[in-house]
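Example 4.3 (complexes with small molecules)
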Amino acid sequence: MSTVLFISGPPGIGKTSVAEALSEQLKIPFFDLDQLIEKEKDTVLSAYIQNLGWSEFRQSESNRLQELCQLLTRLQSNATQKQTLVSGFADNHDQTYYKLEAVVSLGGGCVLKESNRLLMRELGPIFSLWGSQALIKQRLHRRVKHNPQAHPLPLSSSGDLNQLLLERLPVYLDCDAWIEVYEGESPKQVAQRIQKIWTHHQTVKNDLPEMPDPSSKSFWYSPPHQDSFFSQNFKPNSSEQTDVKSAIPPLEKSDTPPLMLHDYPIYLESSAQDKLIDQIIKWLTSSVSHNQKAPQLAVFSDDIVARLYGGELVGALQSFGIQAHLISFPVGEQSKQLRVVEALSTQLLKLNFTRSDCLLALGGGVSGDLCGFVASIYLRGVSWAQIPSTLLAQVDSSIGAKTAVNHPLGKNLLGAFYRPDWVWIDDHYLKTLPLRHLKAGWVEALKHALISDPKYFEVLSTLSLEDCFNEPNSITPVIERGLQIKAHIVAQDELEKGSRALLNLGHTLGHAFEKADPNLLHGEAVALGISFTAEYSHYYNGLGQEQVQQIKLSLAHHDLAIDWRKYINEKLFKRLAFDKKRSGSQLNFVTLDAIGKANIEPIDFELFKARVNELSQASVVLDIQ
Ligand SMILES: NC(=O)c1ccc[n+]([C@@H]2O[C@H](COP(=O)([O-])OP(=O)(O)OC[C@H]3O[C@@H](n4cnc5c(N)ncnc54)[C@H](O)[C@@H]3O)[C@@H](O)[C@H]2O)c1
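Answer. The structure with nicotinamide-adenine-dinucleotide bound is encoded below.
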């Protein structure tokens, strides 16, 4: 059975160019609903909307969508007619490559009508593109500048774009797949990501029914239920408590023993979904004491990971009789704040979570930090485990029991050391991770190499993250070495009284850069911090110029910005002053003696400030940008 991919999202996000790129990649036809309306009405949309108004336009949009869907359905049922049918609709399709699939770019408001969504879901999934408000505003501005005839926005009288986005968010969230678009990403890169997700779900979900049930709202991701910004996918089954023990499938012995850090295991697996379910059931069962009911489980994920993996995991656990709930929160660093901790705890309280119930972080570093922090304070502490789904979380943040949220005055200022019961690392999750996030995660692995392993540095420097998924198992040893180094350092000094501070390499300034520029990902800010540290270590600690160049080249080779100078100003120093690693007037700054050898250098804050200023005026060691 064929499928049509519908691309939706707010105005200006780039639906048409992404859909076009996707159609080129998949070699399937592309339809643009707005263009089809213009063609039918023989006028540009701006004039049409101006003359007849938005409600008339929305009606035409629905009619044209219906015609298009009927056409595509007829094509599905009668492949031989396709040539004639298609040529009446759009003239630019090369019939030789025509398959029974298509990409359709929708107008921003087309998904607002539920009847439209139902119609589309009979043919395929609706992808929802989304981006930061700054990005959307910037792109809209560019669109109007380049094309004054671009159609206007359906803004309220206040002309408030934020309001429009806020109103539409629940509808976009209700689409089948949520695709975050990042600053600087080309339509081709976004399309590649969609293709990756699409292919991934087609291959792993071979037990899917061929056609979705259009009334079931979505068919491969479970959309979070929208009763508030914080949503919960699966309502608790209030009827009866199932005994988890009776549902346990026999456990297979793992071929490779897990890495142990203190008293908790770190499993390194590859596409081992069934084993993961066994692991969770074993864990929950082991926490059931005599005459106690089976524990409930809350899976904490951000909105994207909830859609990609959370619904599926929770559904599978429920089928084993486990009272599992998916609790999701908005994507990104903004969720690492006390307000969110309170909202998540409220969800747990409403679900009657007790001290014997368990939490599971499924997601990147933000989910791990947030879930771990909630676990550490909810009813004075409940059990938790982690399934990191970004490279950064797999090689770094999931190891070492640090949990935290941010304070308006600085990053990770409120937190606790709180060990998980176990950590499950599976490279399978990385297949859907955007390249930009892979690169940001790679930076933390590079940091580990710089601290203690020159050979690992070489491996990472030549690693192509673009290609690593075409070569099976090429990423696994990279993850393994990174987490071994981290685990080794943490094992010596879990509470960061001494040597663990080595792991702050690149982070002292990195955190301040991250706060200064919200568009930077954590790993990207750390890359700038490492670039600074390399130059600092050259001037003040004698790190060889050649090694500075190697470090900066390695970062630049992975498209990471290394020009830290533009971030240096008084405001940055104020942020630095709140850095939690500072004790009294001293700062513990991590420097490099060589690639593979780092040092913790206590330095007076004022002296450090003077050195940073001096260095920012000094000539650049290897100016690549
Ligand atoms: N606790 C620690 O020791 C420690 C160490 C380093 C970093 N951190 C923290 O980690 C955070 C950064 O972590 P991060 O970069 O993982 O951020 P993140 O959790 O925000 O994830 C990055 C993005 O990737 C998406 N994503 C996650 N998994 C995905 C998947 N498998 N497929 C597709 N998309 C996926 C997320 O939705 C998000 O948009 C920062 O807050 C940082 O302070 C903590």
